[in-house]
Amino acid sequence: MSCLPALDKFLQNYHKAYLTSLSELPRYYPQGEPSVCIQGEFQPELEQAVFWQPVKREVEGSFANVEHALELTLWPEINHFYGQYFSAPLLFDSKWGTGELLQVWNENDFYCLQQNLIGHLMMKKAQAATHLVYWPVR
């Protein structure tokens, strides 16, 4: 079962909730980083919040380079979860608590995610540990 339908629905509900309750799109502080997600004018030198919405990528991002470099197979859904959209992180509240679904803001952010994953997995390999990945939570 793919995570993509759930991610699509979460993104739709996320934006609908903002529009319904605040009558505006979500805001994000992009720290000077451009993105196709930004709605309206973007002036990186001002370091101010921008309105944003997720943008489906034309070509899905892939972790094949990570798999090839480390000679291992990653969970296939990682390509859908991090490679389907450009988006700001998605904050949420649930009956289990609050959380944040990290997403990639732009192509450079996707590259940094890949590099962080490679570094983490290489460290695990050096420690002769299993390739267990804990995704960070803010």
Automatic annotation (TrEMBL):
The keyword Disulfide bond does not apply. Gene3D superfamilies: Syd protein. The keyword Cell inner membrane applies. InterPro entries: Syd (IPR009948), Syd_sf (IPR038228). Keywords: Cell inner membrane, Cell membrane, Membrane. NCBIfam families: PRK04968.1. This is SecY interacting protein Syd. It comes from Shewanella glacialipiscicola.
